[in-house]
Amino acid sequence: MPTHTVPSSATPEETLAEIDAFAGSLTNDAAREALETLARTLRSGNDVVMATSDDAVTTSAAAKMLGVSRAHLYKVLDSGALPFTVVGKRDRRIAMSDLAAFIDKTEEARKSAARSVARRRDSRALSLDEMD
């Protein structure tokens, strides 16, 4: 199944309201959350790319999803941090499942780093309070 892009600019508010209403009627938490995320993302002005976990994307598409340059993505790929397959002689494709796992992993690393900085800041503030 090829990827499909839902452009935010072509999605009227009445359609988003219908998505919200339908999502609210669902008992399946994962499906409801997916539709709520879809509507929220489109409202924020961002397009939504829909793909199955079996789909593969180009390096250009993956870089755009990650918010990095293609040059940076090639460094990530060459480091082995993100698996890919070679198509033809040199084109690379990245499985959506691998890309999603990489995004989750890097997001968790960012959160962990932010928590660590916050703990250090709090510890420093406590130390300064004790000095007073």
TrEMBL record:
Protein species of origin: Brevibacterium sandarakinum
Residues in Helix-turn-helix domain copies: 58-105
GO molecular function, one term: DNA binding
InterPro entries per UniProt: HTH_17, SinI_DNA-bd
Signal peptide stretch: none
Protein name listed in UniProt: DNA binding domain-containing protein, excisionase family
